[in-house]
Write a structure and sequence with these properties.
The chain is α+β, with helices and mostly antiparallel strands. The protein is 57% helix and 16% strand. It is built from eleven helices and six strands. Strands 1-2-3-4-5-6 form a six-stranded antiparallel beta sheet. Helix 3 runs antiparallel to helix 5, helix 7 packs antiparallel against helix 9 and helix 8 runs parallel beside helix 10. It starts with a helix and ends with a helix.
């Protein structure tokens, strides 16, 4: 590798990392605010906020990496123009084709990493997020219980005592007094826990005894049970269903469902945006002597939003049958790639050739 290659790669790498960190901080600032608000409302247990935040990294990278490639190439190469280094390189017979090649070589590993993130890591992260929330909701009835104390149940349904409660929500030496209009029930068991059964959170007690009629006029009834399942409506959160985003890519390949085919197209096209927008950033990095280094960033953001929205519109069109599946989302990156690689000055020169010949 030549010294110039190392220098260009160094500039691109440092700028890419800096832009990536800034955008990640902005993205996770909003995500952390949403998760903390949900935790305050009780919709998400506070103990899993950090885990959920980390699981949102793959989905965030899938969205912001094309923007990072666009901005990083613009800033890194734009600095070369502002410091007149590009003028020196051009005077040394270094053509623009060289920068296209080195930009492509820099973006190719990033695109391959994005492919792995989009096809495998992002669906896995969505699946893990749902499982963690479901597991936390199962344990959440135990989260407010204090071991070694009599804990009142919601709406004065009774009192629950457990000598010990571990992190998985398993309880030892349980005493439960469940009181309702129909009966007065006291349960004793050496162990128990909360479980999901038929989309309900059920208190499961094992190898215990039940006592009825201790505080009434009825006859006291004592029964021994191997397993007791008690349903407490106030402790049952909503069961989360599997979403399309978490479906593995291999299951989407042979699917005939339009929504699943649209999701497959989205995952396949996403890595291509790294290279397309990166080359577009190279084209937009050229600035004049009196033109600021950040003069075209706003225009670059507009192009990124346009690129992303066209992909979203195409995905929705495939989902509802308004866009052919065989064509997919490929026209969008192909159009932007043509814009990034075309030399419009040469096109204008070709158009002007007949006019010049007539004058001569």
């Amino acid at each position: 590798m030549r010294i110039l290659d190392k220098y260009i790669f160094k500039e691109l790498t440092f700028t890419f990392i800096a832009v990536l960190l800034v955008l990640l901080l902005i993205t996770f600032g909003s995500e952390a605010t949403k998760l903390l608000a949900d935790a305050m409302k009780g919709e998400v247990p506070a103990s899993v906020v950090l885990q959920l935040l980390l699981l949102k990294i793959p989905a965030a990278l899938e969205i912001i990496l094309p923007l990072v490639a666009l901005l990083a190439i613009m800033l890194a190469v734009g600095r070369l123009y502002q410091d007149q280094e590009m003028v020196v390189m051009n005077s040394c017979a270094i053509s623009p084709v060289y920068f296209k090649k080195i930009t492509f070589a820099f973006l190719l590993p990033v695109a391959l990493l994005t492919t792995w993130i989009s096809l495998f890591l992002t669906p896995w992260s969505y699946q893990q997020e749902r499982e963690i929330i479901s597991q936390a909701q199962t344990i959440s009835p135990v989260a407010g219980l204090v071991a070694g104390k009599f804990n009142p149940l919601p709406n004065n349904q009774g009192v629950l005592y457990a000598k010990s409660i571990n992190e998985q929500g398993k309880m030892r030496s349980i005493w439960l007094k469940y009181q309702s209009k129909e009966n007065d029930l006291v349960l004793v068991a050496p162990k128990g826990q909360f479980e999901w059964i038929n989309n309900r959170v059920v208190l499961v007690l094992e190898e215990g005894f039940s006592y009825r009629g201790l505080h009434g006029q009825e006859e006291v009834t004592v029964q021994k049970y191997a397993r007791f399942e008690g349903y407490l409506p106030e402790l049952t959160p909503a069961k989360l269903r599997a979403k399309l985003f978490e479906k593995p890519t291999f299951e989407l390949i042979g699917s005939t469902d339009l929504k699943e085919q649209a999701m497959l197209q989205w995952r396949l096209v996403t890595p291509l945006g790294i290279i397309v927008l990166g080359l577009l950033g190279l084209k937009m990095s050229k600035t004049g002597p009196r033109e600021g280094r950040f003069a075209r960033i706003f225009f670059a953001l507009v192009l990124y939003i346009l690129y992303n929205q066209l992909l979203v519109v195409g995905r929705d069109g495939i989902s509802n049958g308004g866009w052919p599946v065989w064509l997919g989302l490929w026209p969008v990156p192909v159009l932007f790639a043509w814009f990034a690689l075309s030399d419009f000055k040469k096109l204008r020169f070709i158009k002007s050739l007949p006019l010049r010949s007539k004058r001569t």
